[in-house]
Amino acid sequence: MLLKDIQFLDDATRPAIPKLNGVTEAQKAPGEHLRQIHDHLRENMVVLGRLIERASEGKASVEEIKSETADLVMVSNYRRFGTLCGQYCQFVHGHHSIEDYAIFPGIAAQGPAFKAIADRLQAEHVVVHQLLERLIDALIKLADAPGPSNFEDAVTVFRALEKVLLSHLNYEEESIGDALGYFEIGV
User: Fold this and answer.
1) CB burial of residue 122 (10 Å; 0-12, 13-18, 19+)
2) N or C, which end of the chain is more exposed by having fewer CB within 10 Å?
């Protein structure tokens, strides 16, 4: 599976983060809340990545995978909706929609530097969604026709999503975490 048409993130192209002087602990709280939400995504990506590695090495049975994923926050919440990946996409899409429509406009209104950051974060959301859609397609293909090639395609897309999503979450926290409380956005 080729990912040539997916734009990958480059820290060098991201807008610089303006320095906010005198940020209080209370003003840091909304950014900490954002980090905690993101930590759920990070933890689930780590667990899924380990399972993919074990499965690719033949060290995880279907039963072990089902057992080990049963307690993941995203899995337990997503089972009602069908597929793990489908629901993961819905969770990320919902999270990004809240940011795109309720958080980023307030950030962008704080001046050109913050507008550039908000615009970049929204553009990165598009890349994350493209990769989530690709992962769903790869997993459906793998389920329909198990085999080394389809498994490798699914792993390739997962690893790309992991790289992009983790980079995006870190940049988002660094760039707007303190600004949320400082400018009283979404608090």
Assistant:
1) middle
2) C
DSSP H helical ranges for 79-147: 84-98, 104-108, 112-144
Distances in whole angstroms, Cα of residue 41 to Cα of each of 5, 88, 107, 187: 25, 9, 23, 22
Backbone angles phi, psi at 57, to 5 degrees: -90, 0
Query: In 10 A of CB 131, how many CB atoms?
Result: 23
pLDDT 10s digits, 52-82: 777 667 676 656 655 665 555 444 443 433 3
Residue 50 reports pLDDT greater than 50: yes
Number of CB atoms found within 10 A of residue 7's CB: 13
Q: What angle do CA 62, 52, 83 make, to 5 degrees?
A: 65
